[in-house]
Amino acid sequence: MLIYLIRRIIQSLSLLLAMSVIVFFAIFVIGDPVEMLIDLEATEREIAAIRQALGLDLPVYMQYFQFLSSTFRGDFGTSFVFNEPALKLILTYLPATLELAITAMMIAILVGIPLGMYAGVRPQHPVSKTIMAGSILGFSLPTFWSGLMTVLVFSVWAGWLPASGRGSTVDILGVQLSIFTADGLSHLILPALNLALFKISLVIRLARAGTREVIMQDYIKFAKAKGLPSSRIILVHVGKNILIPIVTVLGLELGSVVAFAVVTESVFAWPGIGKLLIDSIGLLDRPVIVAYLLLVVVMFVTINLLVDILYSVLDPRVQLARRAA
After folding, report:
1. How far apart (Å, rounded) are the C-alpha atoms in residues 114 and 210?
2. Are the C-beta atoms of residues 143 and 193 closer than 8 Å to each other?
3. Contacts of 87 (CB under 8 A, 6+ apart)
4. Out of 170, 206, 292, 317, which residue is the most buried by the measure of CB atoms under 10 Å away?
5. Per the domain annotation, does 52 fall within a domain?
């Protein structure tokens, strides 16, 4: 176990290093952030002073090594636009995105697993066919379009829920959360549902496929022969065994939900790191962009590791030492 963890940490550090090189040089090629920041009437001397202040007068490889040196000290640089430490800026916006992503995943799990299991247990029932047809629709709808439609229906036409913003928040252990206030929860519902739509469809299909596979196993037939209640068979024997592939996929999907919540945050004006990233790209704010992408890589690697460990807990036949080999 220890050897496996050490190996994964080394792999993660190598991945972070490679990612930092790719991202840093890719952003350098895109354009000059000074042109986005200066006044159109600025003189050459003023432009040169800004370049020197931001460290952009150095060759690109020296800029990268300075960035790398600062990163090892936990300093991702200062935002060109906001004039704040990039990491602090991202951590300020991160709770809103995590709250949205975790809520969306919980909705996907609570809705998708029961519907998928029902469709797997009674595949020919009209309700099951409707569920599977709905899952196809969930896969097919573009996120931005479904977001605009939910705003149109539930906010503009019905007037039930707010269309944008985060609403009121409450401070819990120094973190601002909106889910624990009525106003914040009303603002959270629509973006969370929109972000969860694709994941619900995915979970439905995973749960249905797992149920159809497990329900034909001999131990399920034996449980029925013993006279166990159908509810116990479905919830305990079937439910526990279909969780393994679902946990594996959803663990990786959580990272993607956080990383790619940009569209939903833009549609609903949700103040998360996705919206911050879009604004930073538009202004070529390199420190914020690089810090964001490195944070996403760290998150993916960490989630991957946790999924591997949880996989071994759910299925004792899987040993981390064997997977490492």
Report:
1. 12
2. no
3. 74, 75, 76, 291
4. 292
5. no
Q: Report DSSP state, residue 32.
A: -
- For residue range 8-32, what is the model confidence (pLDDT) as tens digits? 778 777 877 887 788 777 776 666 6
Can you tell me the distance from the alpha carbon of 67 to that of 73, in angstroms, rounded to the nearest whole number?
A: 10
The pLDDT tens digits of the residues spanning 38-73 come to: 766 677 777 777 777 777 777 778 878 877 777 777
Measure the CA angle with vertex 81, ends 76 and 82; round to 5°. 75
Asked whether residue 218 is assigned to any structural domain, the reply reads: yes
Per the rule left: phi > 0, alpha: psi between -120 and 50, beta: everything else, 159 is: left
Give the total number of structural domains in the chain. Answer: 1
217-274 pLDDT tens trace: 777 787 778 777 877 888 777 877 788 778 778 877 887 788 778 889 888 988 888 8
Neighbours of 252 (CB within 10 A): 14
pLDDT greater at residue 311 or residue 294: 294
**CATH number of residue 121's parent domain:** 1.10.3720.10
323, part of any domain: no
Q: How far apart are CA 149 and CA 132, in angstroms?
A: 22
Give the type of residue at 126. P
CA distances from 160 to 57, 150, 166 (A): 53, 11, 16
Q: What is the dihedral of CA 311, 313, 317, 319, to 10 degrees?
A: 70
Domain that holds residue 115: 89-282
Rounded to whole angstroms, how far apart are CA atoms 80 and 85? Answer: 9
Could you give phi then psi for residue 32, rounded to 5 degrees?
-105, 115
Cα 253 to Cα 139, 144, 305, distances in angstroms: 14, 19, 14
Q: How many CA atoms lie within 13 A of 221 on its CB side?
A: 4
**What's the one-letter identity of residue 143?**
T
* Four-CA torsion 302, 305, 306, 308, nearest 10 degrees: 160
- 68 in any annotated domain: no
Q: Are 152 and 144 in contact (CB under 8 A)?
A: no
